[in-house]
Automatic annotation (TrEMBL):
Location of the active site: 116
NCBIfam families: gyrA, PRK05560.1, PRK05561.1
Annotated protein name in UniProt: DNA gyrase subunit A
Superkingdom classification of source: Bacteria
One GO term (biological process): DNA-templated DNA replication
EC number(s) stated in the UniProt entry for this protein: 5.6.2.2
Pfam families per UniProt: DNA_gyraseA_C (PF03989), DNA_topoisoIV (PF00521)
Main location: cytoplasm
Keywords: ATP-binding, Cytoplasm, DNA-binding, Isomerase, Nucleotide-binding, Topoisomerase
Quaternary context: Heterotetramer, composed of two GyrA and two GyrB chains. In the heterotetramer, GyrA contains the active site tyrosine that forms a transient covalent intermediate with DNA, while GyrB binds cofactors and catalyzes ATP hydrolysis.
Family affiliation: Belongs to the type II topoisomerase GyrA/ParC subunit family.
Amino acid sequence: MSNQISIEKELKKSYLEYSLSVIIGRAIPDVRDGLKPVHRRILFAQHELGNGWNRAPKKSARVVGDVIGKYHPHGDSAVYDAIVRMAQPFSMRDLLVDGQGNFGSIDGDAAAAMRYTEVRMSRLAGEFLSDIDKETVEFKANYDNTLLEPSVLPTKVPNLLLNGSSGIAVGMATNIPPHNLGELVDALLVLLDDRDCSIEELMRHVKGPDFPTGGICYAGQGLRDAYTTGRGTVKIRGKVEVEERKKGFQSIVIREIPYALNKASLVEKIAALVNDRKIDGVTDLRDESDRKGIRVVIDLKRGTIPDIVINALYKYTPLESSFGINMLAVVGNRPQTLTLKSALSYFIDHRREVIIRRTRYDLRKAEARAHILEGLRIALDNIDEVVRIIRASGTPQDARDGLMDRFGLSEIQAQAILDMRLQRLTNLEHEKLVDEYTELLKQITWLNSILDNRDVLQGVIRDELTELKSMFATQRRTDIEAELDGIDIEDLIPDEDVVITLSRRGYIKRTTLESYRAQKRGGKGIAGLHTGDGDFVQDFLTTTNHQFLLLFTNKGRMFQLKVYQVPEGGRTARGMHIANLLPLEESEFVTTVLSVRAFDEDKYFLFATKRGMVKRSSADLYGKARRTGIIAVGMREDDELIMVREVNEHCHVVLTTQDGIAIRFHCNDVRPMGRGATGVKGIALRSNDEVVACVTLAQDTTNEIMTVSQGGYGKRTRLELYRVQSRGGKGIINFKVTPKTGPVLGAIPVQLEDELILLTSDNKIIRMNISEVRSVGRATQGVRLVALNEGGSVVGFDRVQERDVILIQDEQE
């Protein structure tokens, strides 16, 4: 029973040991040399192999074999992958491995097999192992207790911040960005002089991360948080420029990309967005990158504003990325989150410890050599007697003892005299010995001063850092800018009048209003929209680019876009299918398009259905629409939403039917309801009749109602001819429907200053002044508005306001 243990306690203990092993022995770098164990072992194995920067490179397989055979008993692929990354100029700010061969690319191409590539330490990596043979760091047994390996490298390089690090351990992770060596050295020198300096003072020198791939880093509050608390997020953007081409065309050229971004995947993402029309105005995309650098070219259509495309690239692609900084490192065998100051302070403490240990080693060696030289000097000053003692001795032991007794020498000194070569007896050699001894005394004095005087020690650290900067520091690659101030697309798009066109089959486009010219009533019209066989336009809406576009479907759902987000097309263009913009369900289609400037609380949306149901809901309920759409109105199975209008509490509502019936009632007769409500009865329909339009009018309006039939007839009727009734009644006659006129297509409120746009089923467009249409009574059929071809009909119409801003096109167009 004594062997029983608690499973809970054992699991906690075992998992804690495992997590610590992963944290310290694999995933998190040491704060002193900024290396994980695998990288440290790679550099040490190369050092032991003599694979330095000034030697011929060796096969990568040779280095990998030494690392896994002596120090790192893991898979060879893991070690080789680490070597490859240390040799990639797009992964490391300053390379630690000088590689020959294919070491992969920024496009995600894999490196060649280790048997094909060769490596050696870079010159900078040599500074990691400087003085390692002078007992500067502790060594520990390797995995099988047959060799010793360093627990940390005596590096002169602040590598933790220089090259950064990333890793995921158990329950924690680190993500430290690379920095500029020159800036780090400047900050270290400041900290060396004043250990109480603030992080803000250090940030005057360390401007921010310096990524090997360049780009732009926005050093706002996120960077300040990272340097003061150890955690923060910064935005990184690739660098783009606009190039002028022939004949007024322009191209956007991507020169630099965010750190750790796969360039090939970026190009693929841009291509997909262009194909999906989320990025408009692009005619060609190609990757012209070579050994000289990155060059991704995006050719633009004439007239396209480059800033709009650039902003779309930043918004929809990883060309703008977030880098989450988490400065976690191993400090004294424990993970610790670091600030900028603490990370630099730990490195200075490490350098101080290394220099002290190196000084003690050099002092011990110097004193031992000086001790020997003192004995040699005594021997040279008394050479005749020394020779006599040696010749008179029977054995080397007797000679050594005789010299020790006669001159008071130590055993080491006496042995050195016995080992001395005869050439040292010459005058030249004697002078060299004296000079060496003199220099040793100066060195011993210097080394003692380092150990005894803190200021001298600080001076040594300063000199080494200054030398490091002069040898290895390079210009900053990443530009540092203040808080990100993105481009507002709306500021770049003129708020001009446009026409939104939606065809029966669901093709939508945005066209400038200037694309149409005014014509006389009864004309044949100019070529309109080419929608294809069996398709025709069902909705035309005149609006402006900056308004919200609300798209309501037959199933009572609403989707929201900005008008400028609808792809632009010429007058004869087909447009983009609505399914590319909206996630519509099967058998669902857009029936009503509405544009609004804002979602005011005192405004309402009035919904009308085919079966005569109406509903009023506050506009602010529809201001925040998900991309997947929202429920705008509850629908019965046999009903469909036909129209939505913006109203206020003082509006009057006129519902018109295809059989020429209309009803007018106060908007207040329809109480406000929630988004999901079905509504109340607006008109009692006759058999086989259905609502085709919903007209909303202010109570004191001077508007007239324009009614248009499918046969091309229309008329204006004064509003006072429509008496106000109670909601739910049978209504009154609005239009005299005959076989010649065809069913009523719809009705809109108009004024004499407006213009009317008519669209026919054969895709002709007629534009005329409202004043050209005669004002008549309710029970009339009106006048012919358009001459239709046989079998043709009017399928859509809308009014145009502010006619004076429209350019009249040449009739020959």
